[in-house]
Specification:
Blueprint: H1 5-18, H2 25-33, H3 35-44, E1 49-52, E2 55-58, H4 64-77
């Protein structure tokens, strides 16, 4: 699916809806502007994706906490440093 302006707007609306419009707008805009690059980076960390009507989405039908656990385990296997801290900006991706 080509990520044109219409698809970008649809994804933006879906993310805002999922996040109950509490998403950080700067982070959301950065994600949308760099969508293709971010998805490729995520694929390199072994996150699996599938095509959907709003672009590619993670191919997991799991609760958020379980998905986070899988993601962290994959990062640890790749010997990635994990930084602990507070989240002040967030983006919920449907």
């Amino acid at each position: 699916m080509e990520f044109d302006d219409k698809a970008k707007k649809e994804l933006e609306n879906k993310i805002l809806e999922t996040g109950q419009k509490l998403n950080d707008r700067d982070l959301l805009n950065a994600f949308l502007e760099n969508y293709e690059e971010i998805i490729e980076d995520m694929k390199r960390t072994s996150i699996k994706f599938r095509d959907s009507n709003i672009g590619v989405v993670p191919n997991y039908r799991l609760p958020g906490l379980e998905t986070k656990k899988i993601f962290l385990e994959k990062l640890k296997k790749k010997q990635t440093n994990i930084i602990k801290g507070e989240v002040t900006k967030f983006l919920i991706i449907a």
